[in-house]
C-alpha cells in the first residue's frame, strides 16, 4: 500500500456524495464494455439493452417502479434497524408471511361480495403477518439473547416451507386441478393500477410514503435520535436511559411490517393470487439496497431503482442478444463492487506516494 | 436512473456512443429479419440444467435447425415464477415475437394476462389447464413412461422396497408415482414404494440425501421425479439401480442407470411453428405420450435381463397402440376402495387432478 | 428393518451432510474472529465448487481439484478483502454483492462443465472398525475430506487459542485500535483471515462438487453457505460448537428424510422445517447466559478500520 494511501477528510465531501455513484456507473460501463467484448458480445448493444432499452417506454418505466417497490419497502425498514445495530436479515420470510396473511384474508372473503374494506384489511393483515414473523426474533433476542441474525434467517426458510404447505393445502384452488396455487383474487382484492398501460399499483405509493416516513422518523423524531445513538455508541445510549430492548422491538416490528406490506403488495398487485414463489429474493436483495443507499431513505429509493434496472436490463439483454443470465450476475456484481468501493472517496481523499502529515 | 439522467451526466463519449450506436444497430437489425417469424421461449431453470429446461431448449434448437430460414428464436432462462414472469413474457411479445412458449406451470396466469393484451401474438403454455383464443396448452403424458419403469423395478428389486424421490406433490408427480406403483405391483405384488419429497425441482445435495435415506431404509431401486442426476450417482456408488428423469443420465451411473424417461419437445415445437407459418395454428390442448413422441425411454441398461426388457417394451408399444393404459381398472386407493372400476381406464380429468395414492405406496400425499 | 437399525446409516449420512458446513463455517469463524463479517460464503462456495470440479475434470486428479477449489475461493475472497479492507467498503453489502457475483461467475465458468460425470472419492475402509455396528460406517467409512473437515476443528481451535498468530488475530478482532497501537498490522492480519475464509469456503464447495454430489450444476450449494454463516453465530464463535451445530443441522436434515420414507403422516414441508427450527431452539437454549455470549463475539466485528480514524 505504498503506492497510494487514504487520508480521512474532516467531514464528508458533498461533491463526492453525488459524484461517486456516477463514477461507479462510469467504471461499470467501461468494465462492462470490456467484459462483453471479451465474451464475444456486441458491447454497445449489450449496454444499451441493460440501461436504455428497459426504460425507453412508459411500460418499461412502469416495470422499473413495480420491481423497485418491494425492494424499497423492505430496505427502508431494514435500514432503520441496521442503524440501531439490529440485524434483521429475514425480510424475505417476513415478506412471505405478509403474503400468507394478506392472501388468507382475500381467500376468506372470496365470493362473498366483499366491499371497499377488503383491501385495507388485507394490507393490515399483511403488515401484521410480517410483524408477527419479525416478533419471534425480536422476542428471542430480548428475552433469551439469541442472535437475530441466525433466528431471522432460519425463520425465512420456515416461512418459505409454510407458504409451500399452504398452497398445497388450505389455500389450494379447489378448481385448480390440484396445482399448488390459490384462486385468482377477485377485483375487490386486487390493488388498483396507478398508471394505465403499466402494472404500477398502489403499492408503489406505499413505497414512496415509506421513504418519506422513514426520513421523518430518522431526521425529525426523538425515536430516530435514540436509534442513531444506540447504533453509534450503545454505552452512551445506556447512560442516557434509552431502552435498547424497546428499540429492538421497534426496529424489528417496523421492518417486519414493511416487508409484510411488500409481500401482500406482490400478491394483491402483479401476481393476483398466492403462488409457491412470490419473491425472487427481494428480502435479501433489499439488504444490499439498504447499504447501497447508505441507509438513507432517498438513497434507498435511488438504489432500489438502480437494482431493479439491473435485473430488468439483464432480461432485455437475454432477449436481444442471448446474453446468458450468468453474465448478468457477474455484471451486476461488478456494478455493486464499484458502487461500494467508490464510497470511500466521500470520507477519504486519495494521496499518492509516501505517507506525510495530514493537511 | 432513467434515460435523461444517464444522457446528461455520464462521462461523455462512451455513453453517447453506446446510445447512438445501439439505436442504430437496432434500426438495422429488424429490417433484415423482417420476414422471419420471431419465436420466444421462457424457461424456469437454466438452459444448462441438463434436465427440464435443457430439453425444452433442445426443442428450440431443433426448430432453428429445421426452419432456420423462416424463423429466429430467442429465450430467457431462469425466470422466476412470480411477478417477473409477466414482464418477461410481455417483453417478448412487445419485441415482435409472434409465437411464445412459456414452459413452466407457474407461468400460466401471467401468460393469459399478456395474451389478452397481445391478441395477435400466439402463446403456448406447458403443463397448464387454462386456454384462451390465443393461448394453447401442451404437456406430455409423463405417467405413461412410469409404466414400463414400474415393471422393470418389480422384476429387478430384491428387497421389494422401491425408493421414490418427489419434487412437489402436484398431480403430474403423484400420477407418476401411482402409474409406477400399479406397474410395479403387477410385476411383483409384494413390492412397495416409499416416497420422500425434497420440495425442490433441482437440488443435487438434497436429492442425494433423499436417495441415501431411502437406500438405508432398504430400497434397492430408486425412481425420481426431480431433475438432477445426484440420486443416480448414489445408486451407482451403492451398487444399486435407479431410473433417470427428463434426460438420459446414463453417464452419471452406467451400472445403476436402468433407463430414463426423456422429454422430447422437438416434433411438437416444429409442428407448432409450422402451423403458425401456414396460418393453421389453433388454440388447442395437446397432451401427448409415447405415440406423439413427446417422451421416450433412454437406452436400456445392458445388464437388464432380456425378458425384463421385453416386458417393458411390450408395455410401451401397447400404450402406443392404445392396447394398454397406465391406469387400467380396477385401481384401488390406499384404503382399498376401488376408484377406477374394472374394465375402465382413468379419465384424463382423474389423472390431471390426482391427489391420492394407490395401494402399495407408503404414506399419504402431503396436503 | 427396525427403526433403530437406521441409526447407523443416519449417523454416517449426518457426517457427510455436516462436512461442507464445517469447512465453510470454520473459515467464516476465523474471518469473524479477526473482526470482519463476510456474508459472501455462498458465493465463494459456488466458485470453489465449479473451479474445483473444472480442475478435477481437466487434470483427472481430485487432489488438484480440491486445491483448485480452495485457491478459487481464496481468489474471490481477495476481491472482498480489497474492497472492505483497503477501500473501506461496507462489509455486509460487499459480502452480499460477492454472493451475487459468485452465483453469476460460477454459472459462467461452469457452462462447459455441466453434465459431465466425475468419479466419487474413495472411502476409507478399516477392516473390523468400519463394520462396527452403528458407529462403524460413520466414524471409519468416510472419504478423506470428511476427516480433513473434522481435523480442522481442533486445528482452528489450536491456532486461535494456543498460538501467537491466533492471539494477534483475536486481538485485532476484539479491539482494532488497541491492536494497531500495539503495532499489529490490522489490515494485513484481516486480509490473511479473509483469504483463509475464502479458501475454506472454496473447500466446502469443492467437497460438494467432488464428493457429495460429484457434478457441477448451477446453484449446486443450495443455500448451505447461509447455513454456515448462521452456524458461526450458533457456535458463539467457538470451533467445537461449530461441529455440534453442523452435526445437529445435518443430523436433523437426514432424520426428517427418514421419517418421510417411513410414511409417517406429517406433511413433508413441516418436516423440512425441522433443521431450521431445531437450530433456533438450541441457539435459544445456549444463548440464555448473556455474559458468556458477549465474551465470545468479536467486539470489532463489522467495523471499518482506518489507522488515522
Describe this structure in words.
The complex is a heterotrimer of chains A (359), B (367) and C (309). With 359 residues, chain A is mainly alpha-helical. Helices cover 69% and strands 3% of the residues of chain A. Chain A contains 14 helices and 2 strands. Chain A is globular, with a radius of gyration of 22 Å. Chain A starts with a strand and ends in a 7-residue tail after the last strand. By secondary structure, chain B is an alpha/beta fold. Chain B has 2 domains: 3-141 and 265-288, Rossmann fold, CATH 3.40.50; 142-262 and 296-362, Response regulator (Rossmann fold), CATH 3.40.50. Chain B contains 12 helices and 15 strands. In chain B, helix 3 crosses helix 10 (266-278) and helix 8 (204-216) runs parallel beside helix 9 (230-238). With 309 residues, chain C is mainly α. Chain C has one domain (3-296): ABC transporter involved in vitamin B12 uptake, BtuC (Orthogonal Bundle). Helices cover 71% and strands 0% of the residues of chain C. Chains A and B meet through helix 1, helix 2, helix 3, helix 6 and helix 10 of A and helix 1, helix 2, strand 2 and helix 4 of B.
What's this, in brief?
The complex is a heterotrimer of chains A (359), B (367) and C (309). With 359 residues, chain A is mainly α.
Quickly list its features:
heterotrimer; B: 367 residues; alpha/beta; Rossmann fold; 2 domains; 6-stranded parallel beta sheet; 12 helices; globular; C: 309 residues; mainly alpha; ABC transporter involved in vitamin B12 uptake, BtuC; 14 helices
Using the coordinates shown, work out and report the CATH topology of chain C.
ABC transporter involved in vitamin B12 uptake, BtuC
The gross shape of chain A turns out to be globular
Can you summarize the main beta sheet of chain A?
2 strands, antiparallel
**By helix and strand content of chain C, what is the structural category?**
mainly alpha
Binned strand content of chain C: under 5%
Name of the CATH architecture of chain A: Orthogonal Bundle
Query: Largest sheet of chain A, order of strands side by side?
Result: 1-2
Helix content of chain A: 55-70%
Quaternary organization: heterotrimer
Distance between the termini of chain C: 66 Å
How confident is the prediction overall: mean pLDDT of chain A?
91
Q: How many beta strands in the DSSP annotation of chain A?
A: 2
Low-pLDDT runs of chain A: none
CATH topology of chain A: ABC transporter involved in vitamin B12 uptake, BtuC
Q: How large is the radius of gyration of chain C?
A: 20 Å
CATH architecture of chain C: Orthogonal Bundle
Rg of chain A (C-alpha, Å):
22 Å
Amino acid at each position: 500500500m505504498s503506492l497510494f494511501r487514504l487520508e480521512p477528510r474532516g467531514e464528508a465531501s458533498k461533491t463526492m456524495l453525488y459524484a461517486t455513484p456516477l463514477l461507479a456507473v462510469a467504471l461499470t460501463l467501461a468494465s462492462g464494455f470490456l467484459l462483453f467484448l471479451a465474451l464475444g458480445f456486441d458491447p454497445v448493444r449489450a449496454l444499451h439493452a441493460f440501461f436504455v432499452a428497459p426504460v425507453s417506454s412508459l411500460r418499461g418505466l412502469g416495470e422499473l417502479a413495480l420491481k423497485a417497490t418491494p425492494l424499497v419497502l423492505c430496505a427502508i425498514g431494514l435500514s432503520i434497524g441496521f442503524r440501531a445495530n439490529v440485524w434483521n436479515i429475514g425480510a424475505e420470510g417476513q415478506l412471505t408471511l405478509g403474503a400468507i396473511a394478506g392472501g388468507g384474508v382475500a381467500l376468506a372473503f372470496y365470493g362473498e361480495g366483499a366491499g371497499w374494506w377488503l383491501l385495507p384489511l388485507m394490507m393490515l393483515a399483511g403488515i401484521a403477518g410480517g410483524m408477527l414473523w419479525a416478533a419471534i426474533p425480536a422476542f428471542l433476542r430480548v428475552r433469551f439473547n439469541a442472535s437475530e441474525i441466525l433466528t431471522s434467517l432460519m425463520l425465512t426458510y420456515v416461512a418459505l416451507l409454510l407458504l409451500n404447505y399452504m398452497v398445497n393445502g388450505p389455500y389450494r384452488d379447489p378448481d385448480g386441478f390440484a396445482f399448488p396455487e390459490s384462486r385468482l383474487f377477485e377485483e375487490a382484492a386486487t390493488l388498483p393500477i396507478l398508471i394505465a398501460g403499466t402494472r404500477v399499483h398502489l403499492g408503489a405509493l406505499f413505497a414512496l410514503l415509506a421513504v418519506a416516513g422513514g426520513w421523518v422518523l430518522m431526521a425529525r423524531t426523538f425515536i430516530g435520535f435514540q436509534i442513531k445513538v444506540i447504533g453509534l455508541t450503545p454505552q452512551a445510549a445506556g447512560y442516557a436511559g434509552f431502552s435498547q430492548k424497546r428499540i429492538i422491538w421497534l426496529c424489528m416490528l417496523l421492518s417486519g411490517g414493511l416487508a409484510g406490506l411488500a409481500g401482500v403488495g406482490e400478491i394483491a398487485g402483479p401476481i393476483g393470487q398466492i403462488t409457491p414463489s412470490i419473491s425472487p429474493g427481494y428480502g435479501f436483495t433489499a439488504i444490499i439496497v439498504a447499504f447501497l443507499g447508505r441507509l438513507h431513505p432517498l438513497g434507498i429509493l435511488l438504489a432500489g431503482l438502480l437494482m431493479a434496472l439491473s435485473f430488468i436490463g439483464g432480461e432485455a439483454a437475454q432477449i436481444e442478444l442471448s446474453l446468458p443470465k450468468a453474465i448478468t450476475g457477474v455484471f451486476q456484481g461488478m456494478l455493486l463492487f464499484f458502487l461500494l468501493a467508490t464510497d470511500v472517496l466521500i470520507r477519504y481523499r486519495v494521496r499518492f506516494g509516501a505517507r506525510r502529515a495530514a493537511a | 436512473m432513467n434515460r435523461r439522467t444517464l444522457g446528461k451526466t455520464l462521462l461523455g463519449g462512451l455513453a453517447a456512443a453506446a446510445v447512438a450506436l445501439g439505436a442504430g444497430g437496432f434500426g438495422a437489425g429488424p429490417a433484415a429479419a423482417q420476414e422471419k417469424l420471431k419465436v420466444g421461449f421462457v424457461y424456469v431453470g437454466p438452459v444448462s440444467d441438463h434436465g427440464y429446461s435443457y430439453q425444452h431448449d433442445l426443442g428450440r434448437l431443433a426448430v432453428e435447425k429445421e426452419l432456420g430460414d423462416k424463423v429466429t428464436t430467442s429465450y430467457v432462462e431462469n425466470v422466476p415464477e412470480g411477478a417477473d414472469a409477466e414482464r418477461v413474457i410481455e417483453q417478448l411479445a412487445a419485441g415482435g415475437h409472434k409465437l411464445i412458449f412459456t414452459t413452466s406451470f407457474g407461468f400460466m396466469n401471467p401468460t393469459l394476462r399478456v395474451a389478452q393484451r397481445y391478441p395477435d401474438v400466439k402463446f403456448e403454455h406447458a403443463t397448464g389447464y387454462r386456454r384462451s383464443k390465443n393461448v394453447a396448452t401442451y404437456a406430455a403424458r409423463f405417467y405413461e413412461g412410469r409404466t414400463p419403469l414400474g415393471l422393470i423395478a418389480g422384476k429387478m428389486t430384491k428387497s421389494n422396497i422401491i425408493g421414490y424421490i418427489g419434487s412437489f406433490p402436484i398431480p403430474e408427480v403423484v400420477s407418476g408415482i401411482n402409474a409406477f406403483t400399479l406397474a410395479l405391483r403387477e410385476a411383483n405384488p409384494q413390492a412397495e414404494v416409499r416416497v420422500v419429497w425434497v420440495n425442490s425441482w433441482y437440488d443435487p445435495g438434497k436429492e442425494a440425501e433423499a436417495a441415501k435415506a431411502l437406500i438405508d431404509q432398504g430400497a434397492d431401486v430408486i425412481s425420481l421425479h426431480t431433475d438432477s442426476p445426484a440420486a443416480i450417482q448414489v445408486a451407482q456408488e451403492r451398487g444399486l439401480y435407479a431410473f433417470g428423469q427428463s434426460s438420459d443420465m446414463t453417464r452419471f451411473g452406467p451400472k445403476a442407470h436402468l433407463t430414463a424417461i426423456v422429454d422430447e419437445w422437438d416434433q411438437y415445437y416444429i409442428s407448432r411453428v409450422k402451423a403458425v407459418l401456414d396460418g393453421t395454428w389453433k388454440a388447442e390442448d395437446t397432451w401427448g405420450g409415447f405415440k406423439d413422441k413427446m417422451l421416450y425411454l433412454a437406452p436400456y441398461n445392458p445388464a437388464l435381463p432380456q425378458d425384463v426388457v421385453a416386458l417393458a417394451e411390450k408395455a410401451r408399444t401397447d400404450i402406443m397402440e392404445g392396447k394398454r393404459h397406465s391406469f387400467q381398472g380396477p385401481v384401488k386407493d390406499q384404503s382399498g376402495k376401488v376408484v377406477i372400476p374394472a374394465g375402465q381406464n382413468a379419465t384424463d380429468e382423474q389423472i390431471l387432478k390426482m391427489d391420492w395414492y394407490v395401494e402399495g405406496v407408503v404414506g399419504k400425499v402431503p396436503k | 428393518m427396525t427403526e433403530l437399525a437406521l441409526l447407523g446409516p443416519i449417523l454416517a449420512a449426518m457426517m457427510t451432510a455436516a462436512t461442507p458446513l464445517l469447512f465453510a463455517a470454520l473459515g467464516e469463524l476465523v474471518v469473524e474472529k479477526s473482526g470482519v463479517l463476510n456474508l459472501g460464503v455462498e458465493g465463494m462456495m459456488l466458485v470453489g465448487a465449479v473451479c474445483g470440479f473444472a480442475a478435477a475434470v481437466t487434470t483427472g486428479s481430485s487432489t488438484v481439484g480440491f486445491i483448485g477449489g480452495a485457491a478459487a475461493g481464496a481468489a474471490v475472497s481477495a476481491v472482498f478483502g480489497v474492497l472492505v479492507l483497503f477501500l473501506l467498503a461496507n462489509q455486509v453489502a460487499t459480502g452480499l454483492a460477492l454472493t451475487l457475483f459468485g452465483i453469476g461467475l460460477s454459472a459462467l465458468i461452469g457452462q462447459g462443465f455441466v453434465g459431465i460425470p466425475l468419479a466419487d472419492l474413495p472411502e476409507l475402509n478399516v477392516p473390523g472398525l468400519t463394520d462396527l455396528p452403528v458407529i462403524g460406517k460413520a466414524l471409519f467409512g468416510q472419504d478423506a475430506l470428511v476427516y480433513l473437515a473434522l481435523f480442522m476443528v481442533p486445528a482452528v481451535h489450536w491456532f486461535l487459542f494456543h498460538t501467537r498468530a491466533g492471539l494477534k488475530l483475536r486481538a485485532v478482532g476484539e479491539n482494532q485500535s488497541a491492536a494497531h497501537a500495539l503495532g499489529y498490522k490490522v489490515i494485513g492480519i484481516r486480509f490473511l483471515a479473509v483469504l483463509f475464509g475464502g479458501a475454506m469456503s472454496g473447500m466446502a464447495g469443492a467437497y460438494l462438487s467432488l464428493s457429495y454430489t460429484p457434478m457441477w450444476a448451477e446453484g449446486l450449494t443450495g443455500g448451505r453457505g447461509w447455513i454456515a454463516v448462521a452456524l458461526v453465530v450458533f457456535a458463539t464463535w467457538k470451533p467445537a460448537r461449530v461441529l455440534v451445530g453442523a452435526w445437529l443441522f445435518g443430523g436433523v436434515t437426514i432424520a426428517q428424510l427418514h421419517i418421510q420414507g417411513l410414511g409417517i403422516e406429517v406433511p413433508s414441508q413441516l418436516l423440512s422445517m425441522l433443521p431450521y427450527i431445531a437450530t433456533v431452539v438450541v441457539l435459544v437454549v445456549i444463548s440464555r447466559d448473556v455474559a458468556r455470549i458477549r465474551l465470545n463475539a468479536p467486539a470489532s466485528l463489522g467495523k471499518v478500520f482506518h489507522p488515522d480514524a
